[in-house]
Amino acid sequence: MQQAERIVALTGAGISTESGIPDFRSPGSIWLEQPPVSYKDFISKAEARQLYWQTRRNLSGQVAGAKPNAAHYALAELERIGRLQGIITQNFDGLHQDAGNRPERIVELHGTSREAACTLCGARSSMQELQQRINAGEIDPVCPQCGGFLKAATILFGQRVPEAALARARELATSCDLFLVVGSSLKVIPAATLPRLALSHDIPLIIINLQPTPLDDYADVVMHEKAGLVLSQLVALMRLTEQAGDG
Ligand code: NAD
After folding, report:
1. How far is ligand 1, taken at its centre, from the CA of residue 110, in Å?
2. 226: how many CB neighbours lie within 10 A of its CB?
3. Which residues have a Cβ under 8 Å from the Cβ of 206 and sit 6 or more positions away?
């Protein structure tokens, strides 16, 4: 990390667990109790949409109240000192932006839960307003312009990651000089293909994840630790070494 000038970080749900948002597989996850609604079901079944909004009602409380943790701030610090080229995130919680990373440096592969989107015309609107409508008892909200079903601007299972976002992510993965994975199980495609792409370009790989991942054997460094703890210490150490070098 001390030698790297153009670090790219791929972050997953694990970077936000220390902010109180459960990840996909750990105990307490909403998705374990209630498997996620697929895009096909959302479009075709009223009961799937109701289930979606029911799950979101629980989730939105957790996400809305969440604040960035030490790992998010460490990545913001990396950008501030000019060593971070970009963040590719699987998360839709917006905590990288809250920590201070510039939006143009962030690729949100799975979209954002801070905006609502129409499944028919694609129009974006305020998620806060939509959530208020749901909380007030609306059960199947539709787009005022075209009548299409409304949902958060995130990717559901069975929906493709937008090509433009994926192209930007691939570009970042092949133009960096260090690829850093933070809090991702590396089991979700296409995000999991990105560190492989970096490796195929001889770019060093560091993985910080509590549980083992399928790419551990290929990484230069693997840390099965809490991201908030490890990343903040690593970045602090980089700063100290830099300052010692300056002095
Ligand atoms: P995942 O749940 O598959 O894996 C998360 C990984 O993070 C796990 O391997 C776990 O061991 C690790 N982890 C948990 N806490 C950690 C910590 N404190 N430090 C380091 N590692 C930690 O998550 P995923 O691979 O990101 O895939 C699930 C999908 O669900 C995501 O792609 C995302 O779209 C969505 N999701 C998003 C959020 C969010 O926006 N915060 C939360 C849950 C799920």
Report:
1. 12
2. 19
3. 1, 178, 179, 180, 181, 219, 220, 221, 222, 223
CA distances to 103, 224, 239 from 229, in Å: 24, 11, 16
pLDDT digits (tens, 9 = 90+) for 173-230: 999 999 999 999 999 999 999 999 999 999 999 999 999 999 999 999 999 999 999 9
**C-alpha–C-alpha distance, residues 129 and 173, integer Å:** 36
Catalytic residue among 96, 110, 201, 224: 110
Ligand 1 mean position, distance from CA 183 (Å):
6
Strand spans (E) along 119-154: 124-126, 150-154
With vertex at residue 89, the alpha carbon angle to CA 194 and CA 133, rounded to the nearest 5 degrees, is 140
Cβ–ligand 1 distance for 101 under 6 Å, the answer no
Structure tokens at 159: 């929906």
- State the amino acid at position 179 in one-letter form: F
Token output for 213: 């991942």
Name 106's Cβ contacts closer than 8 Å, sequence gap at least 6.
86, 87, 89, 96, 97
Cis ω for the linkage preceding 190 (within 30 of 0): yes
Given the DSSP bridges, would you call strands 205-208 and 178-182 parallel, antiparallel or unpaired?
A: parallel
Cα(216)–Cα(162) distance, integer angstroms: 28
**Residue with the nearest Cα to atom 18 of ligand 1?**
226
Closest CA to 68 of 30, 116, 15, 105: 15
| Structure confidence at residue 60 (pLDDT) | 75
Give the 3-state secondary structure of residue 184.
Answer: coil
